[in-house]
């Protein structure tokens, strides 16, 4: 009789351990998928940011080439304002 109760207890413990293992594995799979999606989203955002910066730099270079005197005056004005704000 005690053996039967012991066997039942062992079975219940094993079933609980199996269920817990399955739950942990599923949580691990879901976490891995979420991390992968997050990584992909971050990579896409970084790539888009790089594209925007490259376009802005190209546009700035073009404006400076077309209007070099205006560009120099604008830089001088900004430098003057920064100097005034710091003092």
Main pleated-sheet profile: none
Question: What percentage of amino acids are in beta strands?
Answer: under 5%
Radius of gyration: 32 Å
The structural domain count equals 1
Number of distinct beta strands: 0
Percentage of helical residues? over 70%
Task: Kindly report the oligomeric state of this protein.
Answer: single chain
Supply the key terms.
2 helices; 87 residues; 97% helix; mainly alpha
What would your notes on this structure say?
The chain is an all-alpha fold. The protein has one domain. It is 97% helix and 0% strand. It has 2 helices and no strands. The model has no long low-confidence stretch (mean pLDDT 93).
Sum this structure up briefly:
The protein is an all-alpha fold and 87 residues long. The protein contains two helices and no strands. The protein has helices spanning 2-66, 68-86.
Architecture blueprint of SSEs:
Elements: H1 2-66, H2 68-86
Helix pairs in contact: 1-2
């Amino acid at each position: 009789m005690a053996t039967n109760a012991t066997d039942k207890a062992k079975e219940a413990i094993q079933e609980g351990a199996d269920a817990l293992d399955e739950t942990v594995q599923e949580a691990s799979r879901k976490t891995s998928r979420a991390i992968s999606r997050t990584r992909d989203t971050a990579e896409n955002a970084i790539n888009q940011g790089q594209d925007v910066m490259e376009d802005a730099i190209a546009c700035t270079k073009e404006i400076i080439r077309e209007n070099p005197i205006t560009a120099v005056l604008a830089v001088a004005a900004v430098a003057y304002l920064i100097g005034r704000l710091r003092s």
